[in-house]
Amino acid sequence: MSAENRRKKAEHIRHLLDTEGDSVRQNTRVFNEGRYESTADLDDYERLKDEARAIKEDAIERLPELIDEVTEAVEANGGTVYLADDAADANRYITEVVDGRTAVKSKSMTSEEIEVNEALEADGADVWETDLAEFVLQIADEAPSHIVAPAIHKSREEIAALFDEVFEPADPPETAEELTRFAREHLGEKIRDADVGMTGANFVTADTGTLALVTSEGNARKCVQATDTHVAVAGVEKVIPSVEDLRPFVELIGRSGTGQDITSYVSLLTPPTDSPTFGEEALGSGDERDFHLVLIDNGRMEMRDDEDLRETLYCIRCSACANSCANFQHVGGHAFGGETYSGGIATGWEAGVHGEESAAEFNDLCTGCSRCVNQCPVKIDIPWINTVVRDRINRGEDGDLDFLVEGLTPDEEPGGVDLQKRLFGNFDALARLGSAFAPVSNWVAGTGPARSVLERTLGVDSRRELPRFERESLVDWFADRGPRVDPDAARERVTLYPDAYTNYVRTERGKAAVRVLEALDVHVDVPAAGESGRAPLSQGMIATARSNAEAVYDALAPAVAAGRDVVVIEPSDLAMFRREYERLLDGDEYEALEGHSYELFEYVYGLLENGAEIDALPDGDGERVAYHSHCQQRTLDLEPYTTAVLDDAGFDVATSDVECCGMAGSFGYKSEYYDLSVDVGETLADQFTTDDTADRTVVASGTSCLEQLDALLTRRPAHPIRLLDARR
After folding, report:
1. Is the pTM of this model over 0.90?
2. Where do the structural domains in the chain lie, given as residue ranges?
3. Counting Cβ atoms within 10 Å, is residue 356 exposed (0-12), middle (13-18) or buried (19+)?
């Protein structure tokens, strides 16, 4: 990315933070908190997710067969099924059906995808969106910013001003109730006068041809019942085997998207419906009505055959990934979205139906934090999809990730990774070099001219403090010092994994970890192991990440083979061992390392549960501590181990309920994203400056969290292991 493009992207994000950020943040957090509360009421939440996942896996596997089955069912009911190859094919068919008449629509992202409104209007039809939010956007001539709540970026005051400007009502509506009533009355006339009703479909059952519409307004039913022609538009992935298969999805979709136990309307229609349409004269029963189910491919069958994009087709468009994403919460889909789709899963959809160029516009806003992983009701590995697409964008047509043509600028590299991503993706090499020449390297990097060059050429924001490398690495320190517990008399023998940041920058936490484990009678070894692959993976450099993973496994394999556990300080690296290494290593290697790896406090907790004496560690003596857990630590459900150990040690711990610090590794260093990173981080910083936390010692588990808090707070945070170190 050129410096000019970085500047434009930074300005766009700053504009959205200023104009839409407050509305998006308020609404997405309401949805997110509601999801936590609603899903907590389900005794079988995980089982329902497994069931939904299995149904979608089966449906996509048998998709051609199910399309034939639903076609037969709909035609047996008297309707018509049209399988459209792409958007142009679908629009051609739909415009022929509508034939220039008036159409009223309920909300459908698939119709947004094919831009059917524009096609119909170009053919002379009058088209009205009847979903309140879609109606607002239609008259504002704006694109949706959210899959479920498309006008989430607009405040009530903005909508009131829009209605006043467009309609000039005698008594301008102001309250939410007044605005809703005004829209309902206006659209009610449009619905009564319409000839064609258009809907989407959340699900289509192959056995009966039944459409499931899950909505929060009654407009979809009205669009169907008020017209004598019904056109339903759905992607082919919406087909599931049977009506019985709807159950887990009905339980999950409302809870996952808006935090509702069930949405206001769940409509099961088996068209042509036998309910009469209404008007001045009651029209006939279902057999006198016209129904068209338009199933759209538009790249989906290619996605089905793509091993890495296939999971995208399991998506039920609930928006949980968007609502749980800190970056999305602050800027919404007008930054974190492409031509149609927004949020975490949007990368897969945009790459599949619009192309990688569309996905490239926002793909880097996914930081791989994994917060969305546990929130997806069908367990899609959304961070991996984003990483794969990023890797493909990096490679381009050339396919050579490591190719660099001499003399060309990064933007001119044919299929190569730009220099910014190379810098951050090879942090281990940079850290080794910085450490070897420290403290001179720290001084040089901190000078004004150096910072200016870094920002201009690599997009490293000059406002962000750079890491300061230690001259002596953790591995070198341990090699000189040696272990202090006799291996033959030790309670346990472990290998401490020296991640790049701990090894070269925050060595104090590594040293504290060694001393704490030794205080609990553990023999510790600290081998040279290299970077886990997290850094290149975050830049979409999968080949480099795989190479790093293989090197790490080779370094740790002797310990694993000897039955020793691997203790990991940095949560993002443990997440690599437990999640991403399944895709980067051979199966046996992954299982061996995954089964022997533990987060530092998870391991300390296990020692204490199995007889180690808490008295061997310093007494907290009621010291007040404010603790923030790393995103991936929460995804792995490891946060409780830290708080439990600190509580047992006598500390008074207050935990953060803000889920993300906003730093996300290299993300917070990039000039195009610095403002967004800080905006997210300030939410956390604000929580740690309240009356109850202002005087507490601040600790955080992740490197990124520590860096962000260090920049935003007046007191320096530390890793919680340092609280248990007698030498702190």
Report:
1. yes
2. 3-129+142-154+194-301, 474-724
3. middle
